[in-house]
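Hi C.,

You asked whether I'd gotten around to modeling the 142-residue construct. I have! Everything is below, sequence then structure, no commentary in between.
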Amino acid sequence: MLPMPGPAGARPITPAINEPGQMPGANVQQQPAQSSPASPNLIPLLDSMTPYVQAFDFVLMIIAGLFCVRARKNPGLTILAVSCFVSAVILLGFFFFGIFHGRGAFSQSAYIVARLLAPFELLLFVIGIIVVARQNKAERSG
């Protein structure tokens, strides 16, 4: 029996001896991948803790924002303060979505607002860091 042609550049595929037209190994059952005994228990635990970690992050962002607001002379820190407060709103939206498991109009609205604000938060952080870095460089050189 002649080998069946394969894709260009590949070795030709020979049919199985007992079953013409089938690829060898087609009847072989694949065994499921072995996972570590801790992973089935760890993933649900981490998922259940996510809203509480986000609540803690919310508090940290509020504290960081208040710290940056106190330095009113520095426009870079003011931008970082606004970014911290936007980040806190985003974390609060994800917290409500996680606590209520996405049920209800309030948690879904909070999630949508959080997702829409996320790119602006990152943009504000980048702008704030650039302004602070340039001011720091100007103070050192001048």
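If it helps when you're writing up: The radius of gyration is 28 Å.

Thanks,
B.
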